[in-house]
Structure formats: structure tokens, C-alpha cells
Design goal:
Layout: E1 22-28, H1 33-48, E2 55-60, H2 67-73, E3 80-84, H3 91-102, E4 109-111, H4 119-131, E5 139-144, H5 150-167, E6 171-175, H6 183-193, E7 199-204, H7 210-216, E8 222-223, H8 236-256
Parallel strand pairs: 1-2, 1-3, 3-4, 5-6, 5-7, 7-8
Helix pairs in contact: 1-8, 4-5
Length: 257
Amino acid sequence: MTLATDGGSTGALHEASSDAPALVVVAHSGNDAEGREAVAQLVASVIANLPGVTGLAAFVDVQQPDVSDVLDALRPGRAAVVVPLLLSTGHHVHSDLVRELAHRRDRRVRVADLLGPDDAIIDVLTQRLAQAGLRDDDLVVLAAAGSSDHRAVRDCLDAGRMLASRLERPVTAGFITAAVPHLSSAIETMHRLHPSARMLLSSYLLAPGLFADLATAAGADVVSGTLLVPGTPAPEGLVDLVARRYLDAAQGLAAET
């Protein structure tokens, strides 16, 4: 039922007998071992919650296998649903995935909705802030990866508004790269406007890695954990969200037949 990966090969594929579309979970790759471990644990939990569904892991950027390699490992004609483990849209969705899937004529493939923004993610952000010791008088800054794609920026700003509504307090969004306001600038501005207030950073990032390190170094007083924390089970709500994205897209594929 699963595709076992070792981080560098496609591993051994054991397909379920069901005609359900295969699940291809696509993560942003990186060089951080803890981040890769946390993502792998999330993928394993999702697959375990979808009995009878063939589950596979693919990556964009550095790590292998990529989406095309994973799809090639499926039996000919097997339909597939690609679920991006991304919190906002942007280059990886509109360029990388589109490019990799555009030439496929051997099977039906549907790309599911992104993970964020979604209430399930806001639940985890709220939990991480509580774990970091959020106080009633703290200022909150949402740290997002950032993108030159305006759609990705909009998604992150929407997540900030959703978190503000949940916390019933203002939330300022800052971007680690490629968008404004830059995270460090947003933190500096808030410190200047509220010099005596404590600044708590909400990490709108899936897992540890370079961006999480940059967020930690941006100047906030306290930094919450990423959505996935190595060594701990993936949040149930996040597992359910990925499964829901798969099921919704699978229903869309079924409606096309």
C-alpha cells in the first residue's frame, strides 16, 4: 500500500488492489534532516489513514524522487491525485507541477487543493503559540516563507487574518523572502511602535529547515514551533486535512469518468 522511500530512491512499491487513485504527496524538499523526518512522518500518518490507497512521496527542488518519477512507478493507466504539502500557491504549483504533469498522457492525474490557508492549519498555529507561552499582552507576527507570486502573498495574508480572528487580536504578517513586508522589518516596526511589548513569532512553516532558522533569527522575543515538530506525531488535524484534500480530488476524478 505504501511507497517506501530512503530520501534518494523510489524504494519498493506495493500497490493496493483497489481502483482508488494513487496518492502522491508532494513536499518542498530541503537539506534539513529533521525537516525531512517530520514530513515523512506526516506522509506515513496520512497513508495509514487511507486504507486501500497506494501512497507515494515526491518532492520539488532538491530531494528525489520528483513527481514524474513517482508517477512512472505506478502501473500503466493508474489514476493519481497529487496533494501538494504547501501552505500557499506560487511557483511550485503554477510552474513546477504544471510542467511535470503537462506532458502526461498515460494516466489521469488531478492536483488537489493546497493545504492552506485552512482552519485546520490555524488550529495547529494556535496550539504552537500556546506551547510557546502566548500571553494576553503579546504582539503576534506571522512568519511566512514569501513568494514573488501575488497569489501566494494573498494566501499568507489570508492566513494572518484567520489567525487574528481566532486569537481575537491583531496579527502582522511578515515574509522571510521575496515579498514585503520582510519579516525582520515587520518585527522592527512593531518593536518601534510598541517598545515595551513582547513579540511572539508564529511560524507559518511546515517543518524545520532554512526558513525556520531564518525566522528564528529575525529578532522576535519568542518563536513558536513549526506545524510539524520532529519526534512528535503529526497533528491529527493536519493529517485529516491532507486526507481530505486527497478525497475531494479523487471525487473530482471519479466525476470525470
